[in-house]
Amino acid sequence: xxxxxxAVVVATGTTMLLVGxxxxxxxxxxxxxxxxxxxxxxxxxxxxxxxAWNRFHARYYPMALxxxxxxxxxxxxxxxxxxxVEVGGRAxxxxxxxxxxxxxxxxxxxxxxxxxxx
Amino acid sequence: MAVMDRLRRVAATxxxxxxxxxxxxxxxxxxxxxxxxxxxxxxxxxxxxxxxxAGHVPAAAVAALGRVHDQxxxxxxxxxxxxxxxxxxLPAATATTRAALVxxxxxxxxxxxxxxxxxxxxxxxxxxxxxxxxxxHGQGGEGMMGGVPWxxxxxxxxxxxxxxxxxxxxxxxxxxFLAVLPPMLEVEVGLQGDVLEEVELRxxxxxxxxxxxxxxxxxxxxxxxxxxxALVGLGALATTAARLARTPDRRVEDVAALRRRIDRPWxxxxxxxxxxxxxxxxxxxxxTDRWRDWLASAASxxxxxxxxxxxxxxxxxxxxxxVGMEVGHAVLTLATLRPQLAASAVAPAVSS
Amino acid sequence: MTGELAAPHPVLGAVVVLGVLLVGTAxxxxxxxxxxxxxxxxxxxxxxxxxxxxxxxxxxxVRPQPATERPDWGLWVLAPAAYVGMAAMAVSVLPxxxxxxxxxxxTGIVVLGSAEVLAMVAVYLHGWAPNSPLxxxxxxxxxxxxxxxxxxxxxxxxxxxxxxxxMSLGRIVASQQEGAWNVLRQPLGLPLFLVVALxxxxxxxxxxxxxTDLATGTVAxxxxxxxxxxxxxRRAMLTAYALATAVVFLAGxxxxxxxxxxxxxxxxxxxxxxxxxxxxxxxxxxIQRYVRIAWTVLLPLSFLHLAISGVAxxx
Lengths: 118, 352, 315
Fold this sequence. Notes:
The structure holds three protein chains of three kinds. Chain B is α/β, with parallel strands linked by helices. Chain B contains twelve helices and eight strands. In chain B, strands 2-1-3-4-5 form a five-stranded parallel β-sheet, sandwiched between helices. In chain B, strands 6-7-8 form a three-stranded antiparallel β-sheet. Chain C has one domain (about 10-315). Chain C contains eleven helices and two strands, in the order αααββαααααααα. The longest helix of chain C has about 30 residues, at about 135-165. The chains are: A mainly alpha, B alpha/beta, C mainly alpha. Chains A and C meet through helix 1, helix 2 and helix 3 of A and helix 1, helix 3, helix 4, helix 5 and helix 9 of C.
């Protein structure tokens, strides 16, 4: 089993190294050495007034919180899936109740307009 | 290096990656480029090898043109269609005519790729403002927003935000040569996150003594449709629309065939059905109806009816409607107003 | 068959994974060019359709990567590397032939899920790194989409694990050979998973990060080999998800006469061509509509899918 994960790591790592090499090919290490007027961000002709990096107002923040609840629940679902057939109909009902409870969160999110940008 | 030389020779035969800087009245050139398989029209100048300048570029937009020119990665070249490179402050540019454009582009592209041509940047080599950031990434100073890297501040929260939240507002002016916006349109936005909080819209007007352009030989509605299709990622269908736009004796069946392919819930409407409705005089409120109008007009001119010029819209009224939209929605909304905005650039409408 | 998979030496495995991604990307690129020319009705010059993408790649290789004013170089290089790396991670746990995978991980679907989440991070970093407004908007827009499609993919993969009684992808294939293919006994799963495939590989109607409406978003400031690396990533990811679709819903290597890997290749290419075709005929959906549909239509559908799959597994 550990050997299997070693194979995953080797394959992922090799690929990352090769693609990283391709992506860094021909980059100027120091942006300040580049001709300045060529370094302005693509805005169609104007210089930006401020840096692009900023504390971004992510409108989907409430959605991210509801997702978090589901992600927690996912941890229970993996073992549940493995023993599902063994346990039988009771497992189906139990997970149904669990998901129904979590769905209330989605309903609340939707009612509060958490899925809209306005 | 032999490998690089071989690569260059193959690259010289690739479709010409073109960034198009559009002045006033350049629809015909844009349709030519979109329709031709030897050319790839790019959405960002960073993806181009050649910059094409088409139409009338007013003196007020020449500085912006220089910045876009410099954003095309070096080595680069510029081709000016039916214009004077010296007037545009691009002395190294090649001048050509619309008829000879694509052949010229193929030649210039090969010269650039094989290292025989490189137009120098026209902007300043050094930042006019000294590096003032603290730390190698300007991350120093007080908290995350402390540095003033490049004399350019970090975005700061407005005193009163639209949502009453103290999050940063990104103040930007985009255009007049941003390929995703209608030509000669400048949008000054205050962005909070990806929502337009404040919008000011202006078109760069033609120079006072500019020669009146001849009537455009292409169907402007279909050119606008091609641009809209490209914006929702349907580049292949956009070439079809562009080809149809420049066919002088369009058949009404061809227009109907194009409409059948795009006017379906899973076609172009997947991108436009959900846009906000607009309340503007002389403009269809429904976004999908706006491009259906272009197809209807192309169909009616194909059977010989007179072409109805679009009514200009007041840019401040359009700007008011964009407030609160997400960036992508705003871009698509402006694309559906392309004919009206082109009309108001020449003859501005007064807000009602 | 038991679902136990043999594995080659890890180094050989890495070569195989890279080979799968490269060949898959070549096929996706070719299919994309042919479909694009068919949709554009450019005439039937097949040779031109086949040659054009390779010339574009040559062009990318000889173009430079320009600097922006103050980029984050490290992340700008890491992002495409990590994105392709996650495609490689997904491929490494998928069966690539009858009784054979690069890594027989018993928790295969968990690895698939992790690859997806980390790929989301890579896309976000790619938009963050250049310090450019349009790229940044693309990055955040993608995160909104990512938070919406994540649950779909999890539920679909868990549903596939029910009849297999295991999280191993080898067992999932074996259970489809013992019973019916998942595309039949879990009918909602395939369309839901195709939504995930298009979203995570930034393709067509669900390409929220690199849309042309943002002047190509996260990739707007890239050129040359760096851009090539990113575009390779998108197609490698499409390949990985087409492969995963073939394994999870179409019983992967199962089929008569031909060897297992050949059947897997045929099914994967078929799925990839469908995805590419969608990209040329379906307009890009707005982000708000995407999020709304994902949470109010697709998420309930995925619950229903789980219920159907559960009942079918017990029957």
